Amino acid sequence: MVHGQGGVKFQNWAKTYGSSPELYFQPTSVEEIREILDMARQRDKRVKVVGGGHSPSDIACTDDFMIQMGKMNRVLKVDKEKQQVTVEGGIFLSDLNVELSKHGLALANLGAVSEVAAAGVIGTGTHNTGIKHGILPTQVVALTLLTASGEILECSESVNADIFQAARLHLGCLGVVLTVTFQCVPQFHLHEVAFPSTLTEVLDHLDDHLQRSQYFRFLWFPHSENVSVIYQDPTNKPPSSSASWWWDYAVGYYLLEFLLWISTFVPSLVCWINRFFFWLLFSSRVENIAISYKIFNYECRFKQHVQDWAIPIEKTKEALLELKAALENNPKMVAHYPVEVRFARGDEIWLSPCFQRDSCYMNIIMYRPYGKNVPRLNYWLTYEGIMKKHGGRPHWAKAHSCTRKDFEKMYPAFPKFCSVREKLDPTGMFLNTYLEKVFY
Ligand SMILES: Cc1cc2nc3c(=O)[nH]c(=O)nc-3n(C[C@H](O)[C@H](O)[C@H](O)COP(=O)(O)OP(=O)(O)OC[C@H]3O[C@@H](n4cnc5c(N)ncnc54)[C@H](O)[C@@H]3O)c2cc1C
């Protein structure tokens, strides 16, 4: 019989959200998950499945039953001919990357970290950058879902097609994702070049940058014109890196945390800290070549609050300039660096922030130096206002203030998703506080 542990405290990676599940399970088989769902039904409990616990919001929290999928993490099948891999939902991408590379394969795109689960990243619509590349759920060609009733559903473009369109970005509310099949590409190396520029230059030549590099993104340093442009492109050259740059980077970040802590007492220092760090770490050209996942992933050194909305790509310039002007007009409103600007191809996934439009993601950040919270309400509201005005849709993993009314306006296919959810989970077994705001 499956055993649930009491007294476990769940916290997300940034320690910004947490909960105390009544029972915490780490199942090793589908039968055990079925048992947990049976128990939940009998005791009228809700169930939350969790992967890497990296979401910077309460999307993975519950005070009822929590199922952590870390022990269901096998690679089930590698189809070399189709270049597809089928994995259990709990596998971390860090393990999958290594496993794929043994077969000469790779995922075409990844987010900044890989200590996240396959079912978790697709559940919230994790993205990286590259206008020819969709968000991570676009790499999914099939998946298996265990529903609230205990039924197993195979889903793909041709089988249970409607459920597939919903489940590719499932929010954790359709059932337990048991397996995911990803379309892969042949393994590749990336050549990364980072060089300094200005906001005016980048915004005036956005199309050029998007054409010039397959995985183009840029970092803007608020309260200044400073920008770091980052190009990443496939290469046949051997791996190489600038060790001294990494050393500077590591030492720089210890200093940054200390200076940001000081700035919690003197907020006006933030604009100088942003400039200083641009000069210290981002004002010269840096190059690096490595296997793709080592370039896609980068170290997010310390805890932070984030927001990350996707707006139509043609709104990029207007929205960023409005954010810049808002900061200039409100000297008391401070913004930590960087504002990370990334791009993604439009898709047809019902709850994808890129649904039917090429998009620009604009990620804002407020660090928590030594775990201390820094006031951010004004900055957050100003940013959300600008994003909403330009037709933005918030990243599902990251805290936002939207409710059902907003999502109905943002997502043409929202009613279709709701009807699939209500059919698969009529009693709301897989809901939690975050999801109630989305659906009620
Ligand atoms: C340091 C850091 C860097 C990040 N970088 C990026 C980035 O570059 N791009 C980006 O888009 N996002 C980024 N994120 C956000 C991150 O990618 C998402 O939060 C992602 O969902 C995390 O995966 P996870 O496995 O931790 O999911 P969790 O937080 O554990 O869960 C997310 C959702 O998936 C559901 N879920 C998980 N497993 C299952 C399952 N088997 N069945 C059903 N539901 C399930 C949960 O219930 C929950 O609703 C970052 C987060 C951090 C902390």
Give the number of DSSP strands. Answer: 20
Give the low-pLDDT segments: none
Radius of gyration: 22 Å
Structural class: alpha+beta
In CATH terms, the superfamily of the largest domain is FAD-linked oxidases, C-terminal domain
How many angstroms does the end-to-end distance come to? 35 Å
Written account of the structure:
This protein is α+β, with helices and mostly antiparallel strands. It has helices at 30-43, 93-102, 118-124, 161-167, 199-204, 206-212, 243-263, 270-282, 292-296, 316-329, 377-389, 404-410, 414-424, 433-439, and strands at residues 10-11, 18-19, 23-25, 47-50, 65-68, 75-79, 84-88, 105-106, 140-146, 152-156, 176-183, 185-186, 189-198, 217-220, 226-235, 286-291, 304-312, 339-344, 359-367, 393-394. The protein has two domains: 75-186, Uridine Diphospho-n-acetylenolpyruvylglucosamine Reductase, domain 3 (2-Layer Sandwich); 189-394, FAD-linked oxidases, C-terminal domain (Vanillyl-alcohol Oxidase, Chain A, domain 3, 3-Layer(aba) Sandwich). The chain has an eight-stranded antiparallel beta sheet, with helices on both faces. It has a five-stranded antiparallel beta sheet with strand order 6-7-11-9-10. Strands 3-5-4 form a three-stranded parallel beta sheet, covered by helices on one side. It is globular and about 60 Å long. The mean pLDDT is 96. The protein binds flavin-adenine dinucleotide (FAD).
Tags for this entry?
440 residues; alpha+beta; Uridine Diphospho-n-acetylenolpyruvylglucosamine Reductase, domain 3; 2 domains; 8-stranded antiparallel β-sheet; 5-stranded antiparallel β-sheet; 14 helices; 20 strands; globular; binds flavin-adenine dinucleotide
